[in-house]
From TrEMBL:
Its EC number is 3.1.3.48. It comes from the Eukaryota. The keyword Transmembrane does not apply. This is Tyrosine-protein phosphatase non-receptor type 20. The lineage of its organism: Eukaryota, Metazoa, Chordata, Craniata, Vertebrata. Residues 173-245, 465-540 form the Tyrosine specific protein phosphatases domain. Pfam families: Y_phosphatase.
Length: 602
């Protein structure tokens, strides 16, 4: 990180070229932010009917070997909606990328410039033809007609919802896919990209597109020179050092893993393809894909685990190799440490496909952490609990942490078994949980599933259909539990939890996107706990075969370096570029037909 910070500080900043048009008194109301103005030499000039009518806060920006590939713009204001559609018409734009919410942190970031059905904006009539929503992305298609012109034009808007202001997305895979989609859909006319100011998120998106194309064409990338060049065309492009560092991280993921998503109709053939032996390397493509994931996981290990490593907490960890990062772990408010500070438990938040931090993954409790376990359920309203082991198969340090009949007390927590129903492959129980220190608090009702057909001596469940059936029960219960958390536990808080969560991710992805991407599922999990999914073949294979099975139904691992050198990310990216460009298939091949090539042919 130190190397990237130093690079970022060397970038030129502030206004580098004249911005006379943006400073004109009659144009100042058209600027969302006083310090973000387009340079005169590359601003978009509208047809002039009166002084100031030719002005919009937008700039032409180059991509790799493609002059004016993008227009970087601020989010429209109430008084610039007509200008915005005038620009779209003038530039013959067919694709808009929107990287901001309309309102963020109670502040208006962008005026809604499109209709819910049909609306006139000056001489332009805009009709919303279709809206398609997937996780984190809304795609809208519009018909744009100008008065006096007989033929309308089609415009597609990609509204990406997962990018916080001044921050970075949590999941680079979705952003990489968006960059690829935009290049596939874009015509020879400029792509309009905007956030709120049109420099931070917008600049990062444009830089990513340029760098991926540079990597493919040249076998090298230069992040510093790229951002410097963008800032010559629009002020403050890639606005924060966090966004600058993110470029390296997303490039690493893109170059290592590439595009690994597969349409569900091709899922089975893709699984067979991954099982084939690559005669050149004498390894399966599963193994190659997982090797890339392992390399990426080294950088996820950089997050410190200071709380887990404290002497007072070390006995609460079943394995010193599986520790929660400080930035990922839940803190306990109902079970305090001896000093009165929030308590520690070896657990991490995990994302589902649709929601951030909806799941909590933890190890089975020790005798000394039984109270902490129930405190975790209480503090985070975990109304859904999944156990992936049979306790009797484990050693004496593993306890049945619930009352097998009647009720039990764990510290201040009172737990009652309401019902128990054996099923095919798992047992379903209902529990109630009360915190006697909070007598006025309502009772927490918990649905508790315990998997029974996954023997400890087997790496995988005996029947994948059991996992899918359990996930179906869990999904039905989720619809009723609103925003409550799901707690998933296994003997070490990693091995079985990872496979279960990855399979759940894929099932959601198939329903939401019609796409299956096991590599993305594992990458997402490993960002939150690197030890989730640690087997190169069987775990990933099971996750991928579970996906196609769900589609039909509904229509010790490798060692990881503890503390890699954080400054090595830049050099690692450079090492990966030439290797990734020559690979067969998806890894590293983010553009099968580059947009640059299509434009040069025109």
């Amino acid at each position: 990180m130190a190397g990237r910070d130093a690079e970022y500080r060397k970038l030129v900043s502030g206004l580098l070229h004249p911005c006379l048009a943006g400073k004109e008194p009659y144009n100042q109301a058209k600027n969302r932010y006083k310090s973000i103005l387009p340079y005169d030499h590359c601003r978009v000039v509208l047809p002039a009917t009166e002084p100031g009518a030719d002005y919009i806060n937008a700039s032409y920006v180059d991509s790799y070997r493609s002059p004016k590939f993008f227009v970087a713009a601020q989010g429209p204001l109430p008084g610039t909606l007509v200008d915005f559609w005038q620009m779209i018409w003038q530039e013959k734009t067919s694709a808009i990328v929107m990287l901001t919410g309309l309102v963020e942190q109670n502040k208006t970031k962008c005026e809604q410039y499109w209709p819910e059905q049909k609306q006139e904006y000056g001489d332009f009539t805009v009709t919303l033809n279709n809206t398609w929503t997937s996780t984190g992305l809304v795609t809208r298609t519009f018909s744009l007609r100008k008065a006096g012109c007989p033929l309308p034009r089609l415009v597609e808007q990609f509204h990406y919802l997962l990018w916080p202001d001044h921050g970075v997305p949590r999941d680079p895979a979705r952003l990489l896919r968006l960059v690829e989609t935009v290049n596939e859909r874009a015509s020879s006319s400029p792509v309009i990209v905007h956030c709120s100011a049109g420099v931070g998120r917008t600049g990062t998106f444009i830089a990513l597109d340029l760098l991926l194309k540079m990597a493919r064409a040249e076998g090298s990338v230069d992040v510093f020179r790229c951002v410097q060049r963008l800032r010559e065309q629009r002020v403050s492009m890639v606005q924060t050092k966090e966004q600058y560092a993110f470029l390296y991280e997303v490039l690493l993921e893109g170059l290592l893993c590439g595009n690994t998503g597969v349409p569900t109709e091709n899922a089975l053939s893709h699984v067979h393809h991954l099982r084939e032996l690559d005669t050149r390397t004498q390894s399966t493509r599963y193994a190659q894909e997982f090797e890339a994931l392992e390399q990426l996981s080294e950088f996820f290990q950089l997050s410190p685990c200071r709380e887990a490593e404290k002497p007072s907490n070390q006995a609460k960890n079943r394995s010193p190799e599986i520790l929660p990062a400080d930035c990922r772990r839940p803190i306990l408010m109902s079970s305090l440490d001896p000093e009165g500070s929030p308590g520690y438990i070896n657990a991490v938040f995990v994302d589902t496909h649709a929601e951030e931090e909806r799941v909590i993954v933890t190890q089975l409790p020790l005798q000394e952490t039984l109270v902490d376990f129930w405190a975790l359920l209480w503090d985070y309203s975990c109304t859904l609990l999944v156990l992936l082991n049979q306790i009797q198969e484990l050693d004496q340090t593993y306890l049945e942490f619930w009352p097998t009949q009647g009720e039990s007390t764990y510290g201040s927590f009172h737990v009652q078994l309401i019902s128990e129903e054996p099923g095919a492959g798992f047992i379903t129980r209902r529990l109630t949980l009360i915190n006697r220190k909070q007598p006025k608090a309502s009772v927490l009702e918990i649905q508790f599933w315990q998997l029974t057909d996954w023997p400890m001596d087997q790496q995988l469940p005996q029947r994948p259909a059991t996992i899918l059936s359990l996930l179906g029960e869990l999904e039905r219960a989720q619809r009723q539990s609103q925003d409550n958390h799901i707690l998933v536990t296994c003997w070490d808080g990693a091995s079985r939890c990872g496979l279960f969560c990855a399979t759940s991710f894929l099932c959601e992805q198939i329903r939401s996107e019609g796409l299956m991407d096991a590599s993305q599922a594992v990458r997402r999990l490993k960002r939150q706990r690197p030890q989730l999914i640690r087997d190169a073949v069987s775990d990933v294979a099971h996750a991928e075969t579970a996906g196609p099975a769900r589609t039909r139904a509904s229509s010790g691992g490798p060692k990881i370096a503890q503390h890699p050198d954080p400054t090595s990310l830049e050099s690692r990216v450079q090492q990966l570029v030439p290797a990734s460009c020559g690979r067969e298939g998806g890894r590293g091949s983010l553009y099968q037909t580059s947009q640059t090539t299509r434009r040069e042919k025109k």
